[in-house]
Amino acid sequence: MSANDDRDPLFRYDDPIFADERLLEITHLPGPDRIVGRDEQMQRVADALNPAIFGSEPNHLFIFGKTGTGKSLISRSVAKRVISEAKRDDVTVNYAFIDCGEQNTEASIVKTIAQLVNDPEQSGITVPDRGLGTGDYYKRLWQAVDRCTDVTIVILDEIDMLEDDEVLRKLSRAGENRRISDSSIGIIGISNKIDFPDHLSERVKSSLSRDELVFSPYDANQLVEILEKRRDAFHDGVLSGDVIPLTAALAAQEHGDARKAIDILRNAGRIAKKQNADRVTADHVRDAKEKTEADRFNELIEGSPQQAKAILYSLTILTENSTEKEFPTKIIYNQYKEVARRLGFDVLSERRVQEILQEQNFLNVIQSEREGRGRGRGAHAKHRLLENPVIVKKVLLRDSRLAPLEDDS
DNA sequence: CCTCCACCGGAACGAGGGGCGC
DNA sequence: GCGCCCCTCGTTCCGGTGGAGG
Questions:
Q1: Cβ atoms within 10 A of the Cβ of A88, count?
Q2: How far is the CA of A378 from the C1' of B4 (A)?
Q3: Amino acid A409: pLDDT
Q4: How far apart are CA A68 and CA A250, in angstroms?
Q5: Mean pLDDT of A382-403
Q6: Which of A47, A53, A301, A311 has the fewest CB atoms within 10 Å, counting from its CB?
Q7: What is the pLDDT of residue A207?
């Protein structure tokens, strides 16, 4: 229908599958009427943020729940509604969404918040990317907050990735310490680790009063409903009848991960499109599941340094050549030494390897468990891959620096 | 029962890279 | 352009701990 005769025939202008693929992007924020099964949680978030509408300080809130349970979606959605509601009373509310996986140091978080809140025209200050001391970034943040907004809502996604929780204390006490005078800050911390508050330092625990809220996984019916709400990403009649139920069922297998469900649906559409099919079928969905899992794993590790990849590769070899699933640090280290030699990498110290394994455990690439308590000799750490070694190997070898490993058995 | 020692994890430190303020 | 700052990746040193083994 959109085939225009006067356009360059080299490209195609009609998409037989997707009507609007953007509806399936993770960053896409659906309207409130399209959010499924989270009424109670939305209300709790709204309760916490409510004072912001009148320009008062909101309550801090921590949200817990597994991936794809709508934590950041609900936070952003409610924050937006607060902003527009406040605007009617001439109260300026801003929100800064920070992914602590990327911004995980004190200075970079403060910098990012300042950059998001700051309007140079209004404040007369700039926030450079580099070159300032941490203290200077704080100063600029307070100025930006004071001059540009009445209330700032700081959403810290993946807050457990923070290396230093000092930033939490400073943000939460900014008002009392008269760092800012005409403005206030509310913090929403999001984490998939429910025990996260235990890791906070005592200073922060005591100074950061907060509400807590848990998001449970979606069940299969809710996943179906969620996917149905995004059906209009596709043209009418393109989806076979069993596509959405199957996608929901596959995503519900581990836990009800809505993000995974949506990713699978999107990939199924893409695969169908690539094959020039005119409908999306169950087979496309099954292929899409595999691709989605590889993509996700790739996302997890692509940013890792080459040494971390070499260590993961060592664990992969061990897993493949053994009936065992988990391996002690020492064994992995010995295997790693050989891998590193073959690659011409420097061979890291065992201490460092231990640390890298720990980091990968944290990133949910591997799972590490200590046997026994304490740090005694009985407390061997054992590590195992969380993903199919075949997929892991394939993804790791995408890195050209590991290419020399390709030709072996 | 006691001692050794293997192992984990905390801390201090540094090299090298990037970049802004003044 | 100098000096200062942050960030990442890495090393070395060390203390606590509790099972193995006499």
A1: 8
A2: 14
A3: 46
A4: 14
A5: 89
A6: A47
A7: 75
CA distance A79 to A66: 21
* Contact (CB, 8 A) for A107 and A166: no
Residue closest to B20 C1′ by Cα: A131
Q: What is the CATH number of domain A218-300?
A: 1.10.8.60
Gap from A374 CA to C15 C1', in Å?
13
Query: Confidence class of residue A169 from pLDDT cuts 50, 70 and 90?
Result: confident
The domain locations on chain A are 38-215, 218-300, 302-405
Burial class (CB in 10 A: 0-12, 13-18, 19+), A186: buried
Which bases along strand C come within 7 Å of a protein CB atom?
A: 3-20
- What's the rounded Cα separation, in Å, for the pair A169 and A348? 36
Tell the CATH topology of A38-215: Rossmann fold (3.40.50)
Per-residue pLDDT band for A249 (boundaries 50, 70, 90) equals very high
Closest CA to the C1' of C20: that residue is: A377
**Higher-confidence position of A133 and A289:** A289
Rg (CA), chain A: 24
CATH topology of domain A302-405: Arc Repressor Mutant, subunit A (1.10.10)
Rounded, the Å distance between the CA of A356 and C1' of C11 is: 14
Q: What is the pLDDT of residue A202?
A: 74
Residue with smallest Cα–C1' gap to C11: A349
pLDDT at A214 over 90: yes
Q: Which of A2, A65, A70 is nearest to A34 (CA)?
A: A70
